[in-house]
Amino acid sequence: MGLFSVRGRLTRSSGYRSPIRLHSEYSLAALARGMGALPQRLRVALVAATNDARIVAVLLVLAAVALGFEMAASFHLI
After folding, report:
1. Are 1 and 7 a contacting pair, CB within 8 Å?
2. SS3 for 11-78, per residue?
3. How confident is the model over 18-72, as pLDDT tens digits?
4. Is position 6 within any domain?
5. Domain that includes residue 74, residue range
6. Using only C-alpha atoms, what is the Rg of the chain?
7. 39's torsion region: left (phi>0), alpha (psi -120 to 50) or beta?
8. Which residues of 41-57 are buried (b: 16+ CB within 10 A; e: fewer)?
9. Contact (Cβ atoms closer than 8 angstroms) between residue 35 and residue 43
């Protein structure tokens, strides 16, 4: 059973829509419409920037692990 497990979730009435949920649904719909209206070159640039950010995030995690090993070695834990 994970942190955000479905088991044990309270049921919601189908008639109630919270303002936060409505806002997020409308924002996502507006974003999807906006992405459809973007020129192809700009859309490709946005996807490339997202991929670059993911690569940088992986490199930062690897650097943190390497730093942890270096600190462990300097404290003679390894």
Report:
1. yes
2. CCCCCCCCHHHHHHHHHHHHHHHHHHHCCHHHHHHHHHHHHHHHHHHHHHHHHHHHHHHHHHHHCCCC
3. 777 667 677 767 777 777 777 888 878 878 888 888 999 999 999 999 999 999 9
4. no
5. 40-78
6. 22
7. beta
8. eeeeeeeeeeeeeeeee
9. yes
Number of residues in the chain: 78
Domain count within the chain: 1
Between the CA of residue 73 and those of 5, 53, 61, 67, what are the distances in Å? 39, 30, 18, 10
Whose tokens are 């997020």? That residue is 24
How far is it, in rounded angstroms, from Cα 40 to Cα 32? Answer: 14
Encoded tokens for 22 = 């409505």
Tens of pLDDT along 29-42? 777 777 777 788 88
In a domain? residue 75: yes
- Does the pTM surpass 0.70? The reply is no
Q: Evaluate whether residue 61 is within a structural domain.
A: yes
